[in-house]
Design goal:
By secondary structure, this protein is an all-alpha fold. Helices cover about 70% and strands about 0% of the residues. It has 2 domains: about 40-90, no CATH class; about 90-310, no CATH class. The chain starts with a helix and ends with a helix.
Length: about 300
């Protein structure tokens, strides 16, 4: 019974994203984001029998509206002649913000549950992240395979990494999916990329006599990604929900954090690969170019396009 209640919170929050499908888009209790609804404009009229005339096509400027002008002239006003504040924003703004809010809450609550329930495991992860000897010691303790709590921390990285890619591509790519489907698709994409990387390392260890160092390197990737997943949760919340200035800072915190994590992981990996780098330089360079640099260049291209587009 204790084990049931221990896993129940993780199960509930694991199903949280799928609850968004049950939320209709025309919920009357939704909070409307400022500027996302139609403007109500009252015409000036001296007719005592006129109650109220409402138009969503004209700006709410009393000087701009004139009841004495013919109706045809008022309707013929071109959209380009309207002031900037009179342009009605698309209705999807409120739905997109609500989706970001739900995903941010899900990631924050998921991270909070992991840090509270598996605090001791997180301490081991952080110790392995900071010191090579602690990482080797932690790997030796996994005699029957990687323990389940570490997989939960790794799962958080896939969700938060997918959400970071969603925020990066949100205004750059027109996708035929709902925001929830696009986020889950990106999360699955992150999962597939790193699963293939771990599989390639395992197969290489079976073919060549490098099973031990490649196992240490594969576990190093898992540890670093687990810690980076927690960092991305913190960045994603401000990137998705913050004001414009905070979103700019969160974007550069995402770019800088990913670069620092990657460089630190490369530095730690060099200590593992140094004895084999001299004996097999060709295989080492092939792996670096095909597995490490190719995904990094794709992400860098997306970041460069977003910076060039003015965020």
């Amino acid at each position: 019974m204790r084990a049931y209640f221990r896993w129940l919170p993780l199960l509930l929050f694991g199903l949280w994203p799928f609850a968004l499908w049950a939320q209709p888009s025309d919920n009357p209790f939704d909070l409307v984001v400022a500027g996302s609804g139609a403007e109500r404009v009252v015409f000036k009229s001296d007719n005592p029998f006129d109650l109220e005339a409402v138009s969503a096509d004209l700006p709410p400027d009393p000087e701009y509206l004139d009841a004495s002008a013919p109706v045809g002239e008022r309707d013929a006003t071109a959209e380009g002649d309207l002031p900037a504040e009179a342009v009605v924003q698309p209705e999807g703004g409120a739905g997109a913000y609500r989706f970001k809010l739900f995903v941010s809450l899900f990631l924050a609550l998921f991270a909070g549950i992991l840090l509270s329930v598996y605090r001791s495991y997180f301490k081991h992860l952080y110790g392995a992240f900071t010191a090579e000897n602690l990482l080797t010691l932690l790997l030796r303790e996994q005699t029957k395979g990687i323990q389940r709590p570490y997989w939960f921390f790794y799962l958080l990285f896939f969700f938060s990494g997918g959400f970071s890619l969603y925020l990066l591509l949100e205004s750059r790519v027109a996708w035929p999916f709902s925001p929830l489907e696009f986020w889950l698709l990106l999360s699955v994409g992150v999962f597939v990329v790193f699963s293939l990387k771990h599989l390639l390392l395992a197969l290489t260890g079976l073919v060549f006599p490098l099973a031990k160092p490649l196992g240490v390197y594969s576990f190093t990737i898992m540890v670093f990604n687990s810690i980076m997943g927690l960092y991305l949760v913190f960045v994603d919340v401000f990137w998705a929900l913050g004001p414009e200035s905070i979103r700019h800072l969160a974007f550069y915190a995402f770019v800088g954090g990913v670069i620092l994590f990657y460089l630190y992981r490369v530095l730690r990996s060099l200590f593992i690969a140094m004895p084999y780098l001299i004996s097999s330089p060709l295989h080492f360079l092939l792996y670096i170019c095909a597995v490490e640099l190719a995904p990094l260049l794709v992400v860098w291209r997306l970041v460069a396009d977003k910076i060039a587009a003015g965020f």
